[in-house]
Design goal:
- The chain folds into 4 domains: about 90 residues, no CATH class; about 110 residues, paz domain; about 140 residues, 3-Layer(aba) Sandwich (Rossmann fold), CATH 3.40.50.2300; about 220 residues, Ribonuclease H-like superfamily/Ribonuclease H (Nucleotidyltransferase, domain 5, 2-Layer Sandwich).
- The strands form 6 sheets. The protein has a 9-stranded mixed beta sheet, with helices on both faces.
- It is of the alpha+beta class.
- It is built from 16 helices and 29 strands.
- It comes from Rhizophagus irregularis.
- GO terms for molecular function: RNA binding.
């Protein structure tokens, strides 16, 4: 590890002296593209030395990040607020601007001789007329507005000030703060519109990505011209490595035997059509549900027409719906998260009183993709009132597409306890011949503050790996190790035994979100906790366990050489497996691209098998993992990682 760190330091040395660098990525200001709101996107190149089976490789890929637009702060703020700067900020505007500029570095325009970077603490609650300071020569008390007029001959256009970090809490007018180039903007703070613009710029087709990578290697990273590398006897071949790969066959997908289009379908390019196919098993009969539409009353008829089409399509898919004309309430969208929470609770109570029964489903029609409203809905329905919810977008409601309704039906049937599709038993004999439980685990960390991290463990309850039960707990913030892994797995094992009258004879864990530096932690803590949980169920219960790490945050990409090996987007076809040459020299790992990307270049999943008491061969585990990716119940496409490790809302 120390040796690889040294090699990485070498390849980053020269680029870091010429360009902006964060972590293992080098960014070029000349590639900037505006995302609006005072934020711009820069392209760069990720480069990292990785050990292969017979040599070392430099992993290079295009990468992107977002920065604050450089320049005068008084020009940045109105772009962020999407309005001109008022004479006095409202409390909401003040808080938003403070959140935007906290920690931002700038140089003072009125003191060009000062080369020091000053850091902003917050937007000052008082303006340039409110604060008095001493004139240096006379000691006269004047307000800051007058001070800048007399001392610097500057008449301020804006009276708002920023407060600096430090003991003195100095104040500087916003129009005299020149924001320094190359300061990263928090990705979590991007709006949905900015995210959309970012995707348009970053979703490069494979051949375009290849061109950008080669461009970066030759013009920016310049390994062959790097005298530091040559002085250490290190040479880098700037041509992309050619590696062997295999393509696994997709499994056959099963639907209800009475389906008009037949009971089975073979996917093409990682997907298939749901038309004229019925779900394997309908969920509970839908009798008690309500539609809450955050729209104007005048759009009621469009919502009613959509609900009618949704009911018809869902029935054609095999769902059992007793109440075909649910109550539709139009509610004016307004307020913060707490306001929405109160509104949802009120709608729930009204519907419950009207139906004289507990609700099975709340369907929400949303006017836009406001993330705060969506989160408020999910938080309220999932954690406060305990009712499954389904959200649909107003623009989709207007179109009332049968395909969209079928996709919504997929999710609703699942939430009502149904099974949408399954795999043919002959496709996954490892699961169907004897009781096997798939586990999945991950930890979600908060984006700011000291909020606790949320850990989740799921376990399959059927012999298809399609139905899962979940357990969630909070734990110390920013901690990746799942403290109560044993307790949650024990609960899942009890649930499995309750449903199947038997304990699983084998266990396969797909663990997401673990970096290579944390592999030892997983083996010494989480694996042992799973074994302890089995012993607590029964002292003699000791099923063989396979523990697999699922990696997504890496920069390895594959580009097919022959046209016959490409899909319609130019990517490698779904099912491509690489387990030689660039994989670890002694660990059991492989890359699997199990999906077809709708946009951009496909990213394969990187699987590390840390522990394997089941003694799976490479072929068996790769095939099983690949086929499981076709059994993600919320879609008619294969997914990029094993469903046990997938996140969804």
């Amino acid at each position: 590890i120390v040796g690889i760190r040294g090699l990485n330091a070498l390849i980053h040395h020269i680029p870091s002296m010429k360009y902006t660098q964060f972590g293992e990525s080098t960014y070029l200001p000349s590639t900037r593209k505006s995302l609006g709101g005072g934020v711009e996107l820069w392209m760069g190149w990720f480069e990292s030395v990785r050990p292969g089976q017979d040599s070392y490789f430099v992993n290079v890929n295009t990468t992107y990040t977002v920065f604050y637009e450089p320049g005068i702060l008084s020009n940045l703020i109105p772009k962020y607020l999407n309005s001109s700067i008022p004479e006095r900020f409202s409390q909401n505007q003040h808080d938003r601007v403070t959140e935007l500029i906290r920690g931002l570095q700038f140089r003072p325009v009125h003191r060009p001789q000062v080369n020091t970077r000053l850091k902003i603490k917050r937007l000052c609650p008082n303006n340039a007329y409110d604060i008095k300071i001493d004139m240096p020569d006379s000691g006269e008390k004047v307000d800051i507005y007058t001070y800048f007029q007399r001392r610097y001959n500057i008449t301020l256009r804006h009276v708002h000030l920023v407060e600096l970090e430090g003991r003195r809490n100095d104040k500087v007018p916003i129009e005299l703060c020149n924001v320094i180039e190359g300061q990263r903007f928090p990705v979590a703070k991007l709006t949905s519109a900015q995210r959309g613009a970012m995707i348009k710029h970053t979703a490069l087709r494979p051949q375009e990505n290849v061109h950008r990578i080669n461009e970066g290697v030759q013009d920016v990273l310049q390994f062959e011209k790097d005298f530091k590398l040559s002085s250490f006897g290190m040479e880098v071949d700037e041509q992309m490595a050619i590696i062997p790969a295999r393509v696994l066959k997709p499994p056959q997908i099963s639907y209800h035997s009475t389906s008009k289009a037949g009971g089975t379908v073979r996917p093409k390019e990682g997907g298939w059509n749901l038309r004229d196919r019925k779900f394997v098993r309908s969920g509970n009969t839908l009798r008690y549900w309500v539609v809450v539409a955050f729209i104007d009353q005048r759009k009621f008829n469009q919502a009613k027409q959509f609900v009618k089409e949704l009911v018809n399509t869902s029935r054609q898919q095999g769902m059992d719906i007793a109440e075909t004309n649910p109550r539709i309430n139009c509610v004016k969208p307004h307020g913060d998260a707490q306001t929405y929470q109160r509104m949802i609770e009120a709608e729930y109570n009204n519907a419950r009183n009207h139906l004289l029964n507990d609700l099975q489903l709340m369907l929400f029609v949303l006017p836009d993709d406001d993330e705060k409203r969506y989160r408020a809905i999910k938080y309220t329905t999932d954690t406060i009132i305990g009712v499954p919810s389904q959200c649909v977008q107003l623009d989709k409601v207007y179109k009332t597409s049968k395909q969209y309704c079928a996709n919504v039906a997929l999710k609703i049937n699942l939430k009502l306890g149904g099974t949408n599709q399954s795999l043919e038993e002959t496709e996954i004999p490892q699961l169907t011949k004897e009781p096997v439980m798939l586990l999945g685990a991950d930890v979600t960390h908060p984006t700011g503050g000291h909020m606790p991290s949320i850990c989740a463990v799921v376990g399959s309850l059927d012999r298809q790996g399609g139905r899962f039960i979940s357990k969630l707990e909070s734990q110390r913030t920013r901690q990746e190790k799942i403290e109560n892994m044993g307790g949650m797995v024990k609960e899942i094992l009890i649930d499995y035994r309750s449903k199947n009258n038997i304990l699983p004879l084998r266990i396969i864990m797909y663990r997401d979100g673990v970096s290579e530096s944390q592999f030892e932690m997983v083996l010494t803590h989480e694996l042992e906790k799973i074994k302890d949980a089995c012993k607590e169920i029964d002292e003699t219960y000791n099923p063989p366990i396979t523990f697999v790490i699922v990696g997504k945050r890496h920069h390895t990409r594959f580009y097919p050489q022959q046209k016959n090996d490409t899909d319609s987007k130019g990517n490698c076809v779904a099912g491509t497996v690489v387990d030689r040459k660039i994989t670890h020299p002694y660990l059991f790992d492989f890359f699997l691209q199990s999906h077809t990307s709708l946009h951009g270049t496909s990213r394969p999943a990187h699987y590390h098998v840390l522990f394997d008491e089941n003694k799976f061969t490479s072929d068996i585990l790769q095939n099983l993992t690949h086929k499981l990716c076709y059994n993600y119940q919320r879609a008619t496409r294969s997914v990029s990682i094993a469903p046990a490790a997938c996140k969804y809302q």
